[in-house]
């Protein structure tokens, strides 16, 4: 019988980390850190009622980084035998001995390490066997296809069930771990009317399977989204207000986070250089990081360097409060780590000017574009220039008039952030960035 991948494996993984750190110490390393993880799960996709794929995942890995003074070396392995662990440490040490010293290299400051590791309720087993997952995917897809006869094809419905456990330790005395899970259901459908064919999707993801949206509802939601796209038109080039749906608005704030990351700042590769203490957004906008949300998709008690995570205001009244830093970038900038070595943890976008519904925002916009999908990677993090393919709906007199596609939305993010006029209360709670719809008063829409 296969051993479970859950919190019961933490003592075993801690022992591996202790072995690795001891071996690094014997090899003469002045500092060392190791991360060990186990992952297990499966995913299945059903297309037109038939099983398309069933994929099993079972991964394990150990990564070690050693420091000889300010020279650094790293190596990894998937073999947990004593001989393999010793050989991996030896490889890391050999690399460090041939690496140039970097004055900013090293472990996180011991004072920043997590002293308490709260239980954030991140692990929830889903007692779902692959054959049950197939039936769930079938039900999801069938519910969607049954909505309308114009739903003629499918890219499939998928179900994923994953769990994992990780332990991190370093030579400063930190040694902690936790288990986590991730589950999902999704569906992608195609609608056709004459020669017009459109696709759309819907999904739900959560750490706790009990918080997943019902599979039948997911299929129906995907169906309605696809049907709504039929009859899409092109637009002529113009300038107009643009309302980003909540799941598309996320990308705006991800671009902001990318611009205030430590690496972007010390490399001088950000359109928001030295922005701390300056206004980036309108005065009503607030952005908060909350790493300790129970069951949160992006929750974490400590970052990948063992640094304690904590609640933090990133934007107050439109003003950037600082940067997103790991220990290395913090030293480069003469600052302190913010506990973000592995990214940000649960971002909440809020407005002190009220959080209207999407319908209210459409009325406020009057005539303009409602963006429902973005395509391409047209964001320049150095200049802030923004140009992305888009589709959605053209809105007239506050009401959706018709679907549109094959257009491009363009501007500069620095200007776009300042031109946000409202943030809605229709928050999309999937994922780790929580925002409602975002209305920007004027952007270029390139079309015919």
Task: Tag the structure with descriptive keywords.
single chain, 448 residues, PmbA/TldD fold, 2 domains, five-stranded mixed barrel, 9 helices, globular
Provide an overview of this structure.
With 448 residues, this protein is α+β, with helices and mostly antiparallel strands. The chain folds into two domains: 7-229, 2-Layer Sandwich (PmbA/TldD fold), CATH 3.30.2290.10; 238-446, no CATH class. It is built from nine helices and 17 strands. It has helices spanning 10-26, 82-97, 130-145, 215-229, 246-259, 262-266, 327-333, 358-365, 413-418; strands at residues 31-47, 50-68, 71-77, 151-170, 175-193, 196-206, 238-244, 285-289, 312-316, 319-320, 347-351, 368-375, 385-396, 399-412, 420-423, 433-434, 438-446. The strands form three sheets. It has a six-stranded antiparallel sheet with strand order 3-2-1-4-5-6. A hairpin with a 2-residue loop joins strand 13 and strand 14 (399-412). Helix 1 (10-26) packs across helix 2 and helix 3 (130-145) runs parallel beside helix 4. It is globular.
| CATH architecture descriptor of the largest domain | 2-Layer Sandwich
What value does the Rg take, in angstroms? 24 Å
Provide the structure class: alpha+beta
Number of strands: 17
Main beta sheet: strand number and arrangement? Answer: 6 strands, antiparallel
Distinct helical segment count: 9
Q: What is the CATH superfamily of the largest domain? A: PmbA/TldD superfamily
Enter the CATH topology name of the largest domain.
PmbA/TldD fold
CATH class of the largest domain: Alpha Beta
Q: What distance lies between the first and last C-alpha atoms, to the nearest angstrom?
A: 62 Å
Q: H/E series, N to C?
A: HEEEHHEEEHEHHEEEHEHEEEHEEE
Neighbour order of strands in the largest sheet: 3-2-1-4-5-6
